[in-house]
């Protein structure tokens, strides 16, 4: 105590309980504090900002402070005044220690310290005097203590009384606590302990059940290998792979860390590799057995479909798509072996030709056309069966993949009941398999087309091929290509058609060359006289005029045509077309038959219809140009031995060309039904023939103008009348009429004579 008055209040309490209880200046306290009240009363802890509460700043309290600031200030002033009026000032009495040196009033008086010892005993007093002085100081202290005790005796005894009361209350509280603890023990024994024991037993039971399940699971896992052997013996590869996958998953998740099963995952992995190898080997064996079986095998379609589905499902389960490439190579090998065996059987009677076979089963080019065509027919039939077998296997693989991806079920599409137990293919994997399957069909069909194309290409140009053989070859090629397109979903292979087009082009070239040479020989030998028309030619013309495509050459008229007087057995002097009568030469009749042969050839070989059309236009150009050389150019005088080119020859050539002009639109319509290519050659030929016809008319008119001009040049206007010159003119006109009226139609004859009359009058005026 420093002797000054301290203003102590309830808020100044910061001592521990014993100090407060033994404070003589205080009475009995109702509240005790062990910490100073304030911001340090509770230990601080950093509280993070809540993401759900907005951030509060002083700006949010400005309105509140302005509103209640004055009221709070007034309240604080009133509270301070009231506190000052009610404040209790506690007076303390200071100790009177004036006669005692300060060294004895220190808190720590250590006489062992030499300095303190020297300060205490620094005087030169005797021992008796020093003892009296210390006794005096002790009496002063005792007097002051007695005075303080007398002043605080009431508070001291009051504190002791409070202490006894507190001890009594603590004894009562201790008894209550003992009673409560005994009750809690009884409750624990009666209610909680058995319940907790039940909970423990339930937990033990669940642990034992889990342990039993683990043991059962371990027992099941240990039975994996015998089960795998059983599944593999029944060719259930998918089940075996699913069992391995499920066991590996169980070992990785539920039985992880089990020491006794630490070697089982590696054993299962080795077993999985063994199954992969078994699947590949079995599929190769199946592919060889399916593709190399005899062509006359009784069972059509897929060989052992259940086995195929099991193998394919297992390979798809392992995501091994290389088996499609294996099957494609096996199909190619089977096709090669089949063709080679077929060639050996076909050429068994010629042992020297066996050495000329190649590895792909191609044949020697020295075979005749009939034998060559028979080989192609047999090869086409054999490869068709190969493609059908590949297509059947393709369908089964496709259905199995769809079922494995969950897109369909094998039970709904086929009679196979062994469907995969789970959908282990994704849509992306299924689409990739679809692409590979389409590639499988396309590759096999392309290879078969190439092999037959190589057979078609081996035929030498020196070998004679008839039209019937070319038509049969066309049917074989068309049938095989349609089968391949149908199998591949509309995809075309150009190899076989290209090879056939080359062979057919060679045939068409020979066909055209032979007929062109024949026509030239006929024209060179033509006497340019009216030829009789057989009934077969009239039938050809009528069929062409009907607009129907000419599929075959018509034969002689039937009995019905003869009885109805539609056609006669005897030849007629002209070709009848409606009301028109066409007097023609013999070469034109042959040309009509040749044209019909071209039409039949284009119908039979529609792939080469544009080529046949170009050849036909070339044939018509040949007839037009050669007839122009023979008639207008007077070449017939040398080739046919004619003495002169008469008006009859000119009129007959013109009428023959007019018949060709009538035929050209019908020929154009016929070829338009067979090809979509432009047929501009017919327009050019028609234009050239029309120009040739006009030249022939001009030639006739020039001959008459020359004859009439010569007569008018010699004529004089003197008797007799008619003069000799006019009688000669009349004779020339009469001969011309006799020459052209029997060949040309009346309209054209009239036009010719009108021009002659006009020229005659003009010449007569100038004479």
UniProtKB/TrEMBL annotation:
Pfam family, one: Vps54
Species name: Diabrotica balteata
Any one GO MF annotation of this record: syntaxin binding
Main subcellular location: Golgi
Any one cellular-component term (Gene Ontology): cytosol
Alphabetized UniProt keyword annotations: Coiled coil, Golgi apparatus, Protein transport, Transport
Domain Vacuolar protein sorting-associated protein 54 C-terminal residues, every copy: 580-705
Name of the protein: Vacuolar protein sorting-associated protein 54
Family that this chain belongs to: Belongs to the VPS54 family.
Domain of life: Eukaryota
GO BP: any one term: Golgi to vacuole transport
Location(s) in or outside the cell: Golgi apparatus, trans-Golgi network
């Amino acid at each position: 105590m420093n002797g000054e008055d301290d203003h102590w209040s309830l808020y100044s309490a910061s001592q521990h309980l014993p100090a407060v209880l033994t404070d003589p200046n205080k009475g009995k306290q109702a509240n005790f504090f062990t910490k100073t009240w304030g911001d340090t009363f509770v230990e601080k802890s950093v509280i993070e900002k809540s993401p759900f509460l907005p951030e509060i700043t002083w700006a949010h309290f400005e309105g509140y402070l302005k509103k209640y600031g004055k009221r709070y200030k007034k309240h604080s002033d009133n509270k301070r005044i009231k506190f000052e009026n009610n404040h209790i000032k506690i007076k303390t009495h200071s100790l009177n220690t004036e006669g005692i040196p300060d060294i004895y009033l220190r808190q720590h008086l250590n006489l062992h310290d030499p300095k303190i010892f020297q300060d205490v005993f620094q005087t030169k007093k005797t021992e008796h005097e020093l003892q009296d002085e210390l006794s005096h100081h002790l009496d002063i202290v005792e007097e002051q203590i007695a005075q303080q005790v007398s002043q605080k005796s009431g508070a001291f005894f009051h504190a002791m009384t409070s202490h006894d009361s507190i001890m009594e209350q603590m004894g009562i509280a201790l008894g209550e606590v003992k009673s409560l603890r005994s009750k809690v023990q009884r409750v624990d024994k009666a209610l909680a302990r058995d319940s907790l024991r039940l909970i423990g037993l339930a937990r033990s039971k669940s642990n034992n059940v889990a342990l039993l399940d683990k043991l059962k699971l371990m027992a099941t896992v240990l039975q994996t290998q015998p089960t795998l052997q059983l599944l593999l013996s029944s060719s259930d590869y998918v089940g075996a792979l699913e069992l391995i996958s499920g066991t590996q998953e169980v070992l990785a998740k539920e039985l992880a860390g089990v020491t006794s099963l630490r070697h089982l995952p590696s054993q299962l992995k080795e077993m999985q590799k063994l199954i992969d190898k078994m699947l590949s080997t079995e599929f190769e064996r199946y592919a060889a057995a399916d593709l190399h079986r005899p062509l006359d095998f009784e069972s059509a379609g897929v060989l052992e479909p259940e086995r195929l589905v099991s193998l394919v499902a297992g390979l798809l389960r392992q995501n091994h798509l290389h088996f499609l490439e294996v099957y494609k190579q096996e199909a190619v090998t089977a096709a090669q072996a089949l063709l080679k065996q077929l060639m050996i059987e076909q050429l068994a009677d010629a042992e020297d030709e066996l050495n000329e076979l190649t590895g792909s089963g191609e044949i020697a080019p020295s075979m005749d056309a009939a034998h060559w065509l028979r080989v192609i027919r047999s090869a086409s039939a054999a490869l068709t069966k190969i493609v059908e077998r590949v297509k059947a296997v393709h369908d089964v693989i496709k259905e199995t993949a769809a079922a494995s991806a969950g897109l369909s079920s094998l039970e709904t599409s086929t009679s196979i009941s062994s469907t995969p137990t789970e959908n282990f293919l994704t849509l992306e994997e299924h689409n990739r398999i679809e692409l590979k399957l389409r590639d499988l069909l396309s590759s096999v069909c392309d290879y078969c087309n190439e092999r037959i194309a190589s057979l078609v290409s081996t035929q030498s140009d020196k070998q004679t091929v008839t039209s019937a053989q070319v038509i049969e070859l066309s049917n074989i090629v068309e049938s095989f290509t349609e089968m391949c397109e149908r199998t591949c979903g509309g995809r075309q292979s150009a190899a076989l058609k290209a090879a056939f087009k080359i062979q057919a082009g060679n045939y068409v070239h020979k066909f055209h060359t032979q007929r062109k040479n024949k026509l030239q020989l006929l024209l060179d030998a033509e006497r340019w006289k009216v030829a009789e028309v057989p009934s077969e030619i009239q039938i050809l013309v009528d069929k062409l005029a009907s607009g129907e495509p000419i599929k075959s050459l018509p034969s002689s008229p039937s009995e019905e045509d003869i009885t109805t007087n539609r056609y006669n057995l005897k030849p007629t002097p002209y070709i009848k077309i409606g009301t028109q009568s066409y007097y023609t030469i013999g070469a034109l009749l042959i040309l009509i038959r040749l044209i019909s042969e071209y039409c039949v050839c284009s119908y039979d070989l529609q792939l080469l219809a544009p080529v046949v059309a170009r050849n036909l236009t070339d044939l018509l150009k040949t007839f037009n140009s050669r007839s122009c050389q023979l008639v207008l150019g007077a070449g017939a005088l040398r080739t046919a031995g004619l003495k002169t080119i008469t008006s009859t020859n000119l009129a007959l050539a013109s009428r023959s060309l007019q018949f060709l002009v009538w035929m050209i639109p019908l020929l154009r319509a016929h070829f338009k039904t067979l090809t979509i290519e432009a047929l501009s050659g017919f327009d050019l030929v028609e234009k050239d023939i029309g120009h040739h016809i006009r030249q022939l008319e001009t030639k006739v008119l020039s001959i008459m103008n020359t004859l009439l001009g010569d007569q008018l040049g010699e004529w004089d206007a003197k008797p007799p009348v008619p003069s000799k010159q006019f009688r000669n003119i009349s004779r020339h006109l009469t001969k011309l009429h006799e020459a052209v009226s029997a060949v040309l139609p009346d309209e054209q004859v009239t036009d010719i004579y009108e021009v002659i009359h006009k020229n005659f009058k003009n010449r007569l005026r100038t004479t």
